[in-house]
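Researcher: Checking consistency across runs. Here is Putative N-acetylmannosamine-6-phosphate 2-epimerase again:
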Amino acid sequence: MTESTTVFESLRGGLIVSCQAYPGEPMRHAETMTQVAEAAVAGGAVGIRAQGLADIALIHERVRLPQIGLWKDGNDDVFITPTLRHALAVAEAGAEVVALDGTRRRRPDGLTLAETLTRLRTETNALIMADCGSLDDAMAAEQAGADCVGTTLSGYSGERPKLDGPDLELIEQIAGSLSVPVIAEGRIHTPAQAAAAKRAGAHAVVVGTAITHPTTITSWFTGALAD
Ligand SMILES: CC(=O)N[C@H](C=O)[C@@H](O)[C@H](O)[C@H](O)COP(=O)(O)O
């Protein structure tokens, strides 16, 4: 079995928990995110998604599950592992899968997605997840050589509406059109939505906020009480 087959077999049908805290937040600390990841493992997660080189390195050391790593730089446009330099650093930090912006937008270093992936392949053993915002992105990312595509940027890149829940239609479209696995990601807030994403054809399902972001979860409850 190739490394790619092994990793994607172990993720098949399961839950990947995204463990991220945002700049300035109390939980923005590698030790804290690693503990959150360990707690997710105890609950049955099959993979971890993590942001930032320090978090990726510590999670790689302590958590024995495939890790999808990314490095966010900036807040808008292309900000998820935006350049080849960021992607190489994420692989170097220990992520088995490097997640990067997989949209068709211009990248800050001027490389195309295909050029970025070719360099990553030459210089690392990491697998590649292209975070996409539309079916056209996903098709272009497969063509460029991505090992899997995510629906991560649906609702954030201007091509798809930002729904309250997951973009099930996009998951279904991608699953029906591509041969690489589609990872459902983005606004999956309930177990029922996770199951629906899997039924729509997702190879695996990423949940972040609803499991690992207490500030947002708290605001859901305080908002309900304020009504
Ligand atoms: C758009 C963007 O920046 N997405 C980021 C990608 O890593 C994270 O902020 C999300 O938390 C992650 O995609 C999981 O999604 P959700 O937290 O909705 O379950």
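Researcher: Does this match what you'd expect to see?
Model: One thing to look at in this run: The mean pLDDT is 97.
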